Amino acid sequence: MQTILLVEDNEMNRDMLSRRLKRKGYEVLLAVDGQQGIDMCLQSPPALMLLDMSLPVKDGWQVAREMKATPALQHIPIIALTAHAMADDRQRALLAGCDDYDTKPVDLPRLLGKIAHLLGAVE
Amino acid sequence: MSFTRRLTLSFVAILVLSLGSVLIQIWGNDTRRRNVWLLQHVIRTQSELNDFSQRMYSAHRKILVVDALAESGAQNGVTAEERNELLSGIEALAALEEELSGDLQEYLEEGGYEPLGASFLLEYWQQFLLGSGGPTGEELQREYDALSSRISANEWYLLARSDEINMGLREVVSRTNKVALGVFLLALITTFVLGYYMTRYTRRAIRQLQKGTSEWGGGNFDYSIGDMGHDEFGQLANSFNDMAASLRQAMGRVREASRRADAANQAKSGFLANMSHELRTPMNAIIGYSEMLLEEIAEEEQLSVNDLQPDLEKIQLAGKHLLTLINDVLDISKIESGRMAVYWEDVALETVLRDVEITVAPLMEKNGNTLRCEFNLQNARIRTDVTRLRQILLNLLSNAAKFTRAGDVHLTVSELAEGGRNYLLAEVKDTGIGMSEEQLGRVFDAFVQADLSTTKQYGGSGLGLTISRKFAELLGGTITASSELGAGSRFELRLPIDVSDSKFANLEKNASGDILVIDDDLAALDLSHRALSREGYRVRTASSGAEGLAMAKEHRPDLVVLDVMMPGLDGWQVLHSLRGDAVLGSVPVLMLSMLNEHDLGLLLGASGYLVKPVESAELTAVVRDLLPATAVGNMLLIEEGDILAQVIEQLPGAEHWKIYHTGDLARVAELLTELPWQLIVMGPHNDSGQISRLVAHLRTEHWRTVPVLMAQAEEEIQSLREQLGAYLNRGV
Fold this sequence. Notes:
Chain A is of the alpha/beta class and 123 residues long. Chain A is 46% helix and 20% strand. Chain A has a single domain, classed as 3-Layer(aba) Sandwich (Rossmann fold). Chain A contains five helices and five strands. The longest helix of chain A has 15 residues, at 108-122. The two termini of chain A are 13 Å apart. Chain B has 21 helices and 16 strands. The relative contact order of chain B is 0.04. In chain B, α2 (80-107) runs antiparallel to α3 (119-130). With 732 residues, chain B is of the alpha/beta class. Chain B is elongated, with a radius of gyration of 61 Å. Chain B has helices at 3-72, 80-107, 119-130, 137-217, 232-299, 305-336, 349-366, 386-402, 437-442, 452-458, 464-474, 503-509, 522-534, 545-555, 571-580, 598-603, 616-630, 643-650, 665-674, 688-698, 717-731, and strands at residues 345-348, 370-376, 381-384, 408-418, 421-430, 478-483, 489-496, 514-518, 538-542, 559-563, 589-593, 608-611, 633-638, 657-662, 679-682, 708-710. Classes of the chains: A alpha/beta (123), B alpha/beta (732). At the A-B interface, α1 of A face α5, α6 and α10 of B.
């Protein structure tokens, strides 16, 4: 069973997405802000990180940059999740080091496809 | 010294010099003329003296001859005739001598001449000729010699005198010439100096002004022309400086406005991105949870309602949040487009405040805050728009609750009399995170929260304060904020509460007109009735379509408020009948419906369309909008020139009419079919054939109810004017 770390500050979204992923057979860990996300990765690296970009304490772009700058963490694929649907959001996320990008509201089949693709690529 | 005065002084100086020159010339001329005259006389005297001397000589010779004859003893040497001739010559000489003596005395100074004294000799000569003895020839010779020498002396004197006069004359001429030349040179120099000075001064002043204008032209509005004194140029420079200062200020304002516009634009773009985020977050929850629920229902067989309930509640919560956001955006858009209506009423303030207190209690508890209320109310009831007041207070309090954790929120409400008016003062004070000065400056701007991170941390659309301030302004009041970072914020709402003398009161007091409300729902009917009566309209009600139509025909209301869904004749049918009626065809009809079929309503001939439930304020606002344009009606004025148009414009009551003025008969035909008409006025027209066809058309059944007033010739305009005057007056 593969572990996904979901970093999301909105309680409802966190609850909803984690439950849906669990139903699809993933083990899901939760972090509520960017710093906590990084700390948890350091403790036990997940197979993949789902990263909300609008986070308190440390925002998603910062988290992505730090992860990719840390040798122990840079192999963890990151999918950026954001409700910011402006054209340059995708570009910004990828520039910050995210491996892929998806918008909210989440289209679950599409997100699952991206997760599977990235996990497959890692393996 | 002013420039004009300098010029005037220069002119006066040149004038004085010129005048001096002229005076000297006059004096010189006069002196010259006098000397010349004197000289002429002296010369004449000279020649007379010469003449006298010659005649004396000649007479003397003759006497000597006579004497010689007498000596020689010739008794009759001299005839009596000759003697008489000599005697008369002597007499003439005596007269000449007298004249000469006068001239000498006149033209030569005393002592400057010798008296001729010829009379003694002349007397001798007479005695001698008459033979009465007397002097001898020798004596005569001696006398004559003495006289000759006196004559010579006087000739010399006269010569000297004429020389003297000549010299004087030459001196005068040279002196006047010198003076004239001097004055001329002086005037020339003065003119040159003044001209040079003026030119130099003017050029320098103009250069200074030019430098200023080119500096300003180049965009340097801080440049200021240096002090140039108090003359015209100085004043011009001051005006230029003032102008530059105004320009500077105007530029500053423009820059500031443009900066603000840029900032507002940026804020708007930021807002759009932010709103998109804010809308997507609850949408995400709604879609996510509902998809998940669908999956669960499909996959799991043993599901109880209890299992679903928490997620359904989350969907509901997210939906409500979404609605709040949308409402906020709509409110802002309504306020910004000026469509927000205000509904004034007398309210019991205490009740409103307690209600607000209860509403915000859960928000306070959520962050562990304590709400402390203090109400000092003198008036039990105040006049305000209670919905807006409540919204403002809720906004301020929920903000305070949102940005404060485990702290205190104070709500203090009191009344204040200031400047003859009464105000409601509501203060909301918290002990929360506060704001920096920079954040405070932008806190009321639309689409701006303190900053984006705040939005993320605290949520919300960033519109609450903007809406609150706009509401406060709508009610004639203000909201101000003060804050310190980390030490909490304080918002103060100040609303005028005795608005009876303010502009707001006029809106309802002036409302007049007959309104017919047709609705089968008695509660709705009552609501509309009360809302419209309160505005001052005369309201009649009908509870069915048929009754409504009958009343409309009987009372001819100014406006009909018509419900769509009614048993029997429904709203659409009533509308159709009204539009088909000759008299009621033009009465505006406001449709009320549960369904949003706005466009359909307007297509079918409704003047306005509102979706139920309708707020009182909205209803009265729309009614107000619909009424004035149709208070009297449309007037079609067919005229080639504009004589009648001018006549009508002057008539009292004309301003209440919407006048369509054209001389083009093709356009008339179009207009007749396009719009409902209440009055048609026709002036003289060249195309009489077309006009008579038009008149015939207007006499047909369809146009029977529309009055047509005509003036076929210019002479008839006066009587038409009277008819029109009477008609328009009646219309009002």
